[in-house]
Each structure stands twice: as C-alpha cells, then as structure tokens.
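Technical annex B. To support the medicinal chemistry partners, we prepared a structural model of the target in complex with coenzyme A, based solely on the information shown next.
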Amino acid sequence: MTIEPAVKARRDAAAGQGSVIRSVIAGVGAYLPERQVTNHELAKTIDTSDEWIVERTGIRVRHVAAEGEFTSHLAVKASERALAAAGIGAGAIDLIVLATTTPDETFPATATRVQERLGLTRGVAFDVQAVCSGFIFALAVADNFLRLGQAETALVIGAETFSRILDWQDRSTCVLFGDGAGAVVLRAGQGKGTPADRGILTTRLHSDGRQHDLLYATGGVSSTKTAGVVRMDGRKVFKHAVEKLAGVVDESLASAGLTSADIDWVVPHQANRRIIDGVGKKLGLPPERVVVTVDHHANTSAASVPLALAEATADGRIKRNDVVVMEAMGGGFTWGAAVARM
Ligand code: COA
C-alpha cells in the first residue's frame, strides 16, 4: 500500500520533533447476540450442571448467534458502536484488522465484508487468525501500521461465532464458549516515547506450534474440507495458560517501562475465572483491578478482550489516562499482551 502524503508528513514531523507516533484508543464498542443460553439450559441436553460449570469456570451464561447471524454481522455492529464512541465517521478508517477463527466464508476475509457494510471504498482490510489471542495479535498489527505511518485510523475487531465449531455433545468444551464481537478505533497521535504517552505503549506476542494437540479443531479446508470442532485437553491448557500469561504480562510491563504497581486495569482473555484469578495472584494484582466478564460472556475467543474492554469503558471503570494491560492465550499456542494508556 502507498503511504498517503498527509500520513508521511505526520510521521516525518514526529521524527523531526523527536516525538513518536502512538496509536491512541479513540473508541471502544461491543455487540452480543440477543439469545442467551444458561448453564441450566445446557444441562437439559448434556450431562452437566450449573454447579459444575460455575465452580470450574465461573461461567453462568453465554450469548449464541441466531441462525443467519454471522461473524461479520456481529463485527459490523461492534464497529459502529466503536466509531460512535470515538465520534468519527467510518470514512476516516483506512485500515481494518479483524481477528477471527470463525470467518463467514473461507474467503474473502470477513474484514472485507465489514469494510463494505460500513460503506468504505478505500483502505486495507484483512483477517488475522490467532484464535483466542487474535485480538492482541490484530492490535499489534494495526499498531505497527500506524507507527510506521502506513495508516492513520484503524478499526481493530475481534469477532466470533464460536458456537458454530463446538461439538454440542462434548461437555468438556461446549459449556465454555460463546459468541460476540468487540472493536476499537485507533488513531495516530503523537507522544514523547515515554510511559506517560497516551496510546498503545507496547505489544508482545508469542507462538509455540509444539502445543497443537492440546487445543485445536478437528478439521480445516485443506485437510477435511470442513471446519471441524473444538478439542481440548483442558487441564494441560490451564497450566500453560497461567504460566504464559503471567510471563507475557511481566514482559510487556518491562518493555513499556512500567511495573505492576502502575497498572490501573487488567483486561484478560475471559476463558476461565480460575485462570484469571491465577494470573492475577501470580502478578500480585488486587482482584478489584481485573475486569471479569466470563460469568456472562463465557469464552468468546478473539472477541473476549475487546468485549471486556468495552464493558469496563462504558460503565466508567476505565478512564482516560488509565494504564490498561490486555492479555490472551489461545490455540497454537499463541499468547500475547498489550499495554495501553487510555
Ligand atoms: N460438566 C460436568 N462434568 C464435566 C464437564 C461438564 N461440563 N466437563 C468435564 N467434566 C468431568 C470430566 O469428564 C471429568 O470426569 P471424570 O473425573 O469422571 O473423568 C471431571 O469432570 C474432571 O474433568 P477435568 O477436565 O479434569 O476438569 P477440570 O477441573 O480440569 O476442569 C476445565 C475442566 C475445562 C473447566 C478446565 O480444565 C479449564 O478451564 N481448562 C482451561 C480451558 C481453557 O480455558 N481453554 C481455553 C483457552 S483459550
């Protein structure tokens, strides 16, 4: 893609003044499908109970997309809300990065469906696949575009209809997931290159393909010509998750020049209440600084972090200038963290 002259001028001006481009979070939005499925409802069709699910995961209810409601539909609604929160029109967007494991179609990218429905006729739109870490990966990609001056206003979306790749007879996985979408608008701003800047201060990403068998889908276009269903060794994933997430949060704080004492809010991937608590404990964070939505969203994969961010922003917990640490881990394994000053 070509760098637009105005963007290039901004980048050069920033460099000339000894300042840096920062990707400022200008707005956050979310959308959840209307239908809610409680644990009690699941217990009518599979051998489980509300008590078991709440005790092991903290989940009470999840949203499930209606027939004919696709990932792009959820993504567009979340994006419209993020744009409204940012107070800008869709026409300003020159980059859409959408994280999903459940695209509408094998191709084209769901991001291009969103681009078209938002009425955009310019810019770049593509998908990122890192399962439950997808939003952190997408945020890192968009942040790098902005900091290099290759885009000025980005929409970063995490959107999933994970209900479509669940084996509804497998009680060890189907009770854990839900559908939804969250989006943030990033705008290129200037900073001094210090932790006091507003915007994304750092992103840290990791992958380890050796752990494939612990969390994967049983199919794919190239192998089975079907999407497959989720399979997971929950116990092993659990152990990896606490270690890796605490590690990458520490790493991201060090990279941003901050310590855990500087964190105002942690917005974790919402996989399991016990994982969230375990990471918080390892980092020595007070539980009241951790945003938890897993009880009413369940694990919405790439949508979980922006959904939680949207909730805590909308209800006034997260305020301007707060330091927010977002973290996630997913199949692959993939894992990562982002530190932002709001
Ligand atoms: N309802 C009732 N019983 C269930 C059940 C359910 N929904 N799912 C599994 N069980 C049973 C198992 O069959 C097993 O029974 P058994 O002892 O007779 O064989 C028993 O509960 C214990 O299973 P186990 O898998 O060891 O439980 P656990 O304490 O590890 O909890 C998870 C299971 C999935 C909740 C937990 O391992 C977990 O949260 N892991 C992390 C998963 C995750 O977050 N993944 C996403 C990362 S992006």
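Notes passed to the chemistry partners:
Residues 48, 52-53, 56-57, 132, 171-172, 175, 232, 234-235, 237-238, 241, 271-272, 275, 299, 329-330 surround coenzyme A (CB under 6 Å).
The mean pLDDT is 96.
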